[in-house]
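[audit] Reproducing an earlier prediction to check determinism. Same input, same settings, fresh worker. If the tokens differ from the archived copy the diff job will pick it up downstream; this log only records the rerun itself.
[audit] input (129 residues):
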Amino acid sequence: MQTIEIDFEVFKELTLRRETEATTYNDVVRALLGLGTMDGKDKAERASETWLSKGVAFPVGTEFRVRYKGEMHYGQVQRDGLSVNDVVSASPSDAARLITGNNVNGWRFWECKFPGHGKWQKIDTLRDH
């Protein structure tokens, strides 16, 4: 997946053009460019390129990071989990354990950045509580 940089006014306008939360920025740009919507097959392929954890869908390529004991650690989402230090974990907590050596709440530990987005966010904010 490619990324493009846009200024805040463009981001705001794209956000306003999203009909629902399910409408992606890619959907908005496709409509503006007259490319039409993705068919069911394309959407199914896109859905298969996500990792689902506790009801949150992380697209493949989503970046994870955390500062632990003064050092930055990084991970990246693959289809079957979160890859950290070349080990794929089934949950954010399992991935956090690879770094800390202890059981920790991975949802409070990590922050992520979705493909095509410039903003990092705590993954705990993505869950319905």
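[audit] rerun output stored. Observation attached for the diff report: The beta strands are 50-53, 56-59, 63-68, 71-78, 81-84, 87-89, 111-113, 121-122.
[audit] end
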